[in-house]
């Protein structure tokens, strides 16, 4: 039996990394599971992305968009191979962040979507949604590029369009999960949506 491909998405500080770690620990009780973080900052492309996010280098908006996508493509072979071997892969962000953040900067939505076409299709996308008020309670914005209120608000609006596109192209896979409440409460909500039945074959995104 193949592994599942599970993606966690959501705005800054919605608790993705916290919940991804918890989810992997729980999944490992039933079989092998591993984390795939995006951006994967360890590869040579990932190092360019890291420098950009830390404002150490400047980059054209389209160039950085394509690098984020290239970073997913370079990891996609291993994702497919692991899933075929029965390993469940849990991604901390994926193509949906890629579209939402770049479209929030003003790039055309369809342009943002195109480079990821054909990537492994997640069996389920858990979108952690948090109101601006609850997000603000989780501390100040950090030092990185997109961590401003204005950018986060525009990204929030784009995530809604991404959700609609997913529902149109791959119905039933996008799950909005309320990220307010304790770590345990959010974890329990995720547990309830993650037990999805999967198709025999891993699909292709946007196809
Ligand atoms: N980006 C892009 O533009 N294009 C792309 O294609 C991709 C990404 C893939 C870096 O991402 C940036 O890259 C990101 C989008 C862009 N820019 N922004 N913004 P990243 O994933 O490296 O960012 P991060 O800093 O690791 O993650 P995050 O979004 O900021 O946080 P999170 O993972 O969602 O949350 P967390 O680390 O689990 O928790 C945040 C804090 O809240 C922490 O102190 C926790 O202890 C606390 N927390 C967690 N859960 C709770 C609950 N339930 N209650 C109270 N407090 C909580
Ligand atoms: Mg994180």
TrEMBL record:
GO terms for cellular component: cytosol; nucleus. Pathway: Pyrimidine metabolism; dTTP biosynthesis. Residues 8-190 form the Thymidylate kinase-like domain. InterPro entries: P-loop_NTPase, Thymidylate_kin-like_dom, Thymidylate_kinase. GO terms for biological process: dTDP biosynthetic process; dTTP biosynthetic process; dUDP biosynthetic process. GO terms for molecular function: ATP binding; dTMP kinase activity; nucleoside diphosphate kinase activity. Keywords: ATP-binding, Kinase, Nucleotide biosynthesis, Nucleotide-binding, Transferase. It is an enzyme of class 2 (transferase). Its EC number is 2.7.4.9. The keyword Chaperone does not apply. Belongs to the thymidylate kinase family. This is Thymidylate kinase.
């Amino acid at each position: 039996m193949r592994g599942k491909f599970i993606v966690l998405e959501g705005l800054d500080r919605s608790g993705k990394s916290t919940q991804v770690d918890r989810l992997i620990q729980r999944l490992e009780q039933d079989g092998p599971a591993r984390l795939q973080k995006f951006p994967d900052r360890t590869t040579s492309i990932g190092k360019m992305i890291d420098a950009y996010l830390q404002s150490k280098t400047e980059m054209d908006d389209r160039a950085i968009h394509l690098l984020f996508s290239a970073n997913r493509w370079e990891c996609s072979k291993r994702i497919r191979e692991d899933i075929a071997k029965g390993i469940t892969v849990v991604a901390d962000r994926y193509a949906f962040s890629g579209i939402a953040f770049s479209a929030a900067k003003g790039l055309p939505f369809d342009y943002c979507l195109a480079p990821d076409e054909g990537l492994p299709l997640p069996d389920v996308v858990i979108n952690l949604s948090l109101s601006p008020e609850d997000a603000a309670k989780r501390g100040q914005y950090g030092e990185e590029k997109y961590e401003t209120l204005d950018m986060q608000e525009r990204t929030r609006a784009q995530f809604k369009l991404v959700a609609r596109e997913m529902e149109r192209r791959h119905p039933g896979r996008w799950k909005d999960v309320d990220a307010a409440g304790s770590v345990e409460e959010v974890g329990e909500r995720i547990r309830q949506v993650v037990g999805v039945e999967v198709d025999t074959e891993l699909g292709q995104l946007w196809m």
